[in-house]
Amino acid sequence: MGLRSFFDRIEPQFLKGGRYEKFFPVYEMVESFIYTPKTVTTAAPHARSYIDMKRIMTYVVLATIPCILFGMYNTGLQTNMAIAEYGASGWRAAIIETLGIGFDPNNPFANIMHGLLYFLPIYVVTLVAGGIFEVIFAVVRGHEVNEGFLVTSMLYTLILPATTPLWQVALGIIFGVVIGKEVFGGTGKNFLNPALVGRAFLYFAYPAYMSGDSIWTPVDGFSGATALAIGASDGVAAFPERGIEWMDAFVGTIQGSFGETSTLAILIGLAFLLIVKIANWRLIVGCLGGMIAFSTLLNWIGSDTNPMFAMPWYWHLVIGGYAFGLAFMVTEPVSASHTNMGRYIYGALIGFMVVMIRVINPAFPEGMMLAILFGNVFAPLIDHFVVQANIKRRAKRNV
């Protein structure tokens, strides 16, 4: 008996009046994951499009693949370099030694495999913990399990440090799914980015695990500051002294979260999203424009006490979570503005806010997460004023 026949045979048990009627969302989730949904619209008008929710989410996940691969490589690279000085310990080191892979930072395969042993547990915990609550809400509400969680889980994993305890990983994604999305009605109805909501919850609930110099490389005793932390304390001029050149930051061989360090990998993913028309270029132009304009203004103003005033826009672009947030979160269609002019304003607001938080708030050197959440909150208001302005302009034209 084929798999298709098996699904057809058990389907009546999950339909209305069937024994497992309440669990239809679970059946639909598994069946539609393997096969194309056979449901069609039943009333006119019909809109034909090759883009559906599943394809959109698949494209976004595909766009993150360069970040995933480089994130594993860089995590393994930073870890193996630290092991050379501090030594190896733990079950991951035991696996590496058993397989005979070694800890040579000059061996790309050794770096990727070591990084995989940190990436995979975090991703699996994210999928299981968040997926359980996705299914619970789907069963209670009687709607299908949406593919949007695949994107949320991937983005959430990529913005976490490799040292994040797995129980915190689970707690953060549950908070992001429930508070950031499901309480508002689920995928398509959330006005906040769920992955960022989960990350923000962990940052404010457990700041010692989400900030500082010791969280980026999972080796006991190792401490290494991110480029943003160095810039906040000593300025851009200190980067070469600490072994960080602009090209290092662009390629991504620096301290940071899994998927945020490589601007090159991020731009590859962004280019793909633009080609398949998932990302809207107006959001990108607005965010880049706001960041470049405000950082340039602060460069011109200058400061004798705050070295971050001197950081040029091209350094803001390649350090911290700016590039990752620009590519995968600013462009998220649900929580962003929906009018064309609103997209420019929304993007510019985030670009302005990230520089303001990084430069003027000394307690929080990274600002992209808060800037995007701030923009999410104001997106509906921005669209409202844009629409009202269009109505008034048309009304005057027709007087």
TrEMBL record:
Membrane topology classification? Multi-pass membrane protein
Which residues does the record list as FMN phosphoryl threonine (modified residue)?
A: T226
Give the reaction(s) catalysed: a ubiquinone + n Na(+)(in) + NADH + H(+) = a ubiquinol + n Na(+)(out) + NAD(+)
* E.C. designation(s): 7.2.1.1
> In which compartments does the protein localize?
Cell membrane
* NCBIfam families, A to Z: nqrB, PRK05349.1
Indicate what this protein is called per its UniProt record.
Answer: Na(+)-translocating NADH-quinone reductase subunit B
Gene that codes for this?
nqrB
